[in-house]
Write a structure and sequence with these properties.
Radius of gyration: 26 Å
Number of domains: 2
Strand content: 15-25%
Structural class: alpha+beta
Distance between the termini: 59 Å
Shape: elongated
Length: 354
Amino acid sequence: MQFDIELCVIALIDAIRAKLALAREQCTLLGVSEGGSAALYFGCKYGFPNIVTIVPQFLLGTYVSKRKPTGRFMLGASMPQPHIAALDRLLPGIIAADNQVARNVYLFSSPADYQYEEEIKPHLHLLLKYGNFNLILSNSTLVRGHGEVAAYNTPMLLGILNALSRGATPRFTFDPPQPEPASQAARHLQRLRARKAIAAQLRGARIAEGRIRVAGHALALGYGCGEADPPTRTLVLKRGASEYRVPVASRLDRTLPRRSFDACFCDYSTAGFDTEDGIETAALQPGRYTLHINLSSRDGQLHHTTPPHWSPPSPLSSAVPMAIGKLSYRRTTPERPLSSGISSAGVTASPSSA
């Protein structure tokens, strides 16, 4: 195994640093996941006092061996066990040998990250020697996996970086967060449901092979994806007294629970939708259509359709139902560009504006 790339990376960092006339004490190394491991590695080995590492891996050999193309490149074609063990020892060994304890280290993780128990928790003792070591654990219903820790903590990350850039070194102590009482959360969700409101947004439309494909999200306030009777979604195209109804498929969007948070957690992660097979343009009469979403459940408790007037849902607690967009259809020659930038088959679709 060779690590020539390490010399290139540190040379690049030093070249940019020299161009900006910065000492290493004026720099912060930050990385996420494998980048978090790199921030620790280069920070501890090359004397950078400020390190921000988010969900890093410590057992690098084991980690890359589970990702075959990367593993074979780094460990050799057969990924021999001695190479895996040597790479596993690399980062813990660098930290253990580091005698510069006057460092500001900020490690972000979460019990919801499957790597916390196997990668981070067993190695925390190595970091306790640093004068300003901060472990920030995100114990929140809005963080449900490895890839959500950085996004959840973006405001705090920006604050730390801003402080370090000004020569300030934040120090944190945290009391474990208390879970929200289940009864309080349930009452709030019931209040949301009683409003019988939909928050929806058209996020994109395209035309291909004579079909219109529409995507967005539509959630009934207070109804999460864990319901015994999850809502079905239907796209409704209205033109005068006529309607054209299209079943839509549910799509996973893990950012929706965070973006739609309102006082307590509700798992809206399956509220994304798209028309999957699309809408046949041949079935539409030329004209102007408004796009609506209908959400309904088999038990009849939920049967809501967005009305014609659009209003932005910010925040959710004051959201009103809305039409999610407008669509104009006219017959044109194939591949003729239209004003929206969508070409072919003669349909334009765009989100409504207030």
